[in-house]
């Protein structure tokens, strides 16, 4: 008769297994933990759950094993090293300067503009599905291909070049590298110069980068300049793609105003964006903005949370996520919003609500929690609360946060 491998046992049975391996009686083990023998017995029989990060780590320390082993997970979480490696690969790609320095591309062919445009579209889709590790892997070669294509055909490859830099900037903000994202968005702005729509599209990521860097007033000023440069004289006659860009830039300006403590200006700007969103409706993704009425409502949640009005943020979140437009937004957008909502729940003293929001984010977009520093920070905050869902406590231990 074969014994059950320890990695597939319940947590309590796994504690008992490793306690036996260390030749510790329940009483000695309990003494070392500062617990009662009854507590140990209940844990090992599964009557009592190990549902706090600190307790799991104390048990693992006494057993001289990694806490993740108790959860039957890989001992070394790979997400942090994968994120760092991805950022460094993109940094290397942005540092090559092959075209201006006249460096040889070796045997690599210069791809037609149409082909690199399709590659960029694929990268955008992957990003909007929150497949951040895959996008990080794609970007170095994609940036090289699109830069060479642009050198060969500046007109046809101009849009793919700007879009590739936009993707890089968005991903780098997600991965917690705003300084490097600034380099990518700067190149997008320069490549788009002379085309007001391309500049406006790149300015969306500029707003993200500036806000991620805490440059609230600079962000607000730049976003308003970019938005009003393409604003139609009469909203009713504005083309949807231009209205989407203008509205998205107004949203970015509003979030910057909220970050700077100007709640009144944030509300006014969001009202202005809402008027444009009403002309477009939900379910569209002009210039990869996902702009529409639901987007503006989610921005009101973020602005309320940024302004310290967490109760209002929670109420708006619960209403906004019942809209049909919520389901039509890209996965990345929904998951990012759920992080904002989780923070708001925490600030209202509701770790259960925060846990629900975070578990939904992890369900639809695991990389938002596992690869994004902001997601890991929220997870750590929730996991420290005694009322945190056990699943999130286990995830926190596995990811090495808490």
UniProtKB/TrEMBL annotation:
Pfam families: HTH_31. Coiled coil: none annotated. It comes from the Bacteria. InterPro entries: Cro/C1-type_HTH (IPR001387), Lambda_DNA-bd_dom_sf (IPR010982). Residues 15-70 form the HTH cro/C1-type domain. GO terms for molecular function: DNA binding. PROSITE patterns: HTH_CROC1. This is Transcriptional regulator, contains XRE-family HTH domain.
């Amino acid at each position: 008769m074969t014994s059950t491998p320890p990695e597939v046992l319940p947590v309590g049975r796994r504690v008992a297994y490793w306690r036996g391996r260390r030749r510790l009686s329940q009483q000695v083990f309990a003494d070392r933990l500062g617990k009662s023998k009854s507590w140990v017995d209940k844990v090992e029989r599964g009557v009592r759950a190990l549902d706090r990060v600190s307790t799991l780590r104390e048990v693992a320390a006494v057993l001289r094993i990694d806490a993740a082993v108790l959860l039957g997970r890989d001992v070394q979480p790979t997400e942090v090293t994968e994120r760092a490696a991805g950022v460094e690969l993109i940094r290397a790609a942005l540092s090559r300067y092959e075209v201006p320095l006249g460096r040889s591309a070796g045997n690599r062919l210069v791809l037609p503009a149409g082909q690199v445009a399709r590659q960029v579209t694929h990268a955008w889709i992957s990003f909007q599905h929150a497949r951040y590790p895959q996008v990080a892997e794609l970007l170095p070669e994609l940036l090289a291909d699109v830069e060479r294509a642009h050198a060969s055909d500046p007109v046809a490859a101009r849009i793919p070049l700007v879009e590739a830099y936009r993707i890089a900037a968005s991903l780098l903000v997600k991965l917690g590298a705003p300084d490097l994202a600034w380099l990518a968005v700067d190149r997008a702005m320069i490549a788009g110069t002379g085309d007001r729509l391309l500049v406006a599209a790149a300015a969306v990521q500029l707003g993200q980068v500036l806000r991620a860097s805490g440059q609230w007033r600079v962000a607000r000023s730049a976003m308003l300049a970019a938005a009003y440069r393409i604003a139609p004289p009469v909203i009713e006659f504005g083309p949807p793609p231009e209205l989407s860009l203008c509205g998205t830039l107004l949203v970015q300006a509003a979030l910057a105003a909220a970050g700077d403590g100007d709640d009144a200006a944030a509300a006014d700007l969001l009202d202005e964006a809402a008027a444009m969103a009403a002309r477009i409706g939900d379910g569209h993704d002009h210039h990869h903005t996902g702009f529409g009425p639901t987007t503006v409502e989610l921005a009101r949640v973020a602005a309320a949370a940024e302004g310290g009005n967490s109760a209002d943020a929670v109420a708006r979140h619960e209403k906004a996520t019942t809209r049909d437009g919520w389901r039509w937004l890209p996965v990345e957008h929904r998951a990012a919003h759920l992080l904002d909502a989780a923070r708001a729940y925490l600030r209202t003293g509701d770790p259960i609500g925060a846990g629900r929001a975070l578990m939904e984010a992890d369900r639809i977009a695991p990389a938002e929690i596992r690869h994004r520093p902001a997601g890991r920070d929220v997870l750590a905050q929730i996991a420290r609360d005694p009322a945190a869902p056990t699943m999130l406590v286990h995830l926190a231990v596995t990811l090495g946060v808490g």
